[in-house]
Design brief:
By secondary structure, this protein is mainly alpha-helical. It has two domains: 6-130, no CATH class; 192-267, Arc Repressor Mutant, subunit A. Helix content is 46%, strand content 6%. The protein has eight helices and five strands; from the N terminus they run αββααααααβαββ. It has a three-stranded antiparallel sheet, with helices on one face. Strands 1-2 form a two-stranded antiparallel ribbon. Helix 2 (33-41) runs parallel beside helix 4 (72-92) and helix 4 (72-92) packs antiparallel against helix 5 (99-130). The longest helix is centred in the middle third of the chain and has 32 residues, at 99-130.
């Protein structure tokens, strides 16, 4: 850490300007930002002699004057490099026996590994970008190449036929009869509100209650003449069950079932539970 060694310069000279990082001119260093970071992580340059103010000022000027083709990710890499340099300088300036100095040494190793991983990721992204793209450079079998111009024929509009069809709408013809509409026959099914009122009425007379089938509505006197008897029976069960669940949710009734597929018992909350 006592200056720039010749071995370090020879080793990193070939990598100067790697990644297109901005060039810096500082006391004791002149070159790209990534080269300065490589020297710092190899401990071949004294970071104490680097003026952080000048480094940040030059980096800000490089960000403002960067070409339009410079991507946002590349600018972000510059900022991350500068932040790592600031962190290394602030940690490595501590006394040698300080615990933070040892942490800084460990972080320097982690930084070196992360930089190697970053370079590998950037190289892989560049390799993927240069690969032939499906649908642009190469095409799947059976799919024609798209030239950007559609060769399909557009439908031809016959203006005279269009005008005659428009005039036909104004002919004095009788308007179609729209008064008669199809209306499906309503089904006479049981309602939940009626089932709720029926449960309250029966529980008022017998608080001990009973099974759910005791709260079903009475069957019609002439069952053979009633339309859809099976559907009406199902609606009686479903409306009674839904009404009992609503009343139980409001705390008006108590529901009990001893086992799976066993009858459901309804009673008032104050009544004794069934045996």
């Amino acid at each position: 850490m006592d200056g720039i060694t010749e071995a370090g310069l020879d080793r990193d000279a070939s990598r100067a300007g790697e990644g297109g990082s901005p060039s810096l001119t500082l006391d004791g260093f002149a070159g790209p930002l990534d080269h300065l970071l490589s020297l710092a992580r190899a401990q071949t340059i004294d970071l104490a002699g680097i003026a952080l103010g000048a480094l940040l000022d030059q980096l800000a000027a490089a960000l403002r004057q960067a070409p339009a083709a410079t991507s946002l990710g590349q600018k972000g890499d510059w900022v991350v490099m500068a932040a790592w340099l600031v962190q290394l300088r602030s940690r490595l300036l501590l006394p040698a026996d300080a615990p933070a100095r040892q942490d800084a040494t460990a972080q320097a190793g982690q930084l070196r590994d992360r930089l190697v991983g970053l370079q590998a990721i950037q190289a892989l992204a560049l390799w993927l970008e240069r690969r032939p793209q499906l649908g642009r450079d190469v095409f799947a079998r059976g799919r024609p190449e798209v030239f950007g111009v559609s060769v399909e024929t557009a439908p031809v509009l016959d203006m005279m036929e269009f005008l005659w069809a428009s005039l036909a709408l104004f002919d004095d013809e009788p308007a179609p009869d729209t008064a008669t509409l199809y209306r499906p026959r309503p089904l006479d099914l049981h309602d939940v509100s009626e089932a709720r009122a029926r449960i309250r009425q029966l529980l008022a007379a017998a608080p001990a209650g009973g099974t759910l089938d005791r709260f079903l509505p009475d069957p019609p006197e002439e069952a053979g003449d009633a339309p859809h008897p099976t559907l009406r029976r199902r609606s009686a069960w479903s409306s009674t069950l839904v009404a009992s669940l609503e009343l139980a949710r409001h705390g008006e009734v108590h529901l009990a079932q001893n086992g799976v597929f066993t009858p459901i018992h309804l009673s008032t909350p104050s009544a004794d539970p069934p045996a």
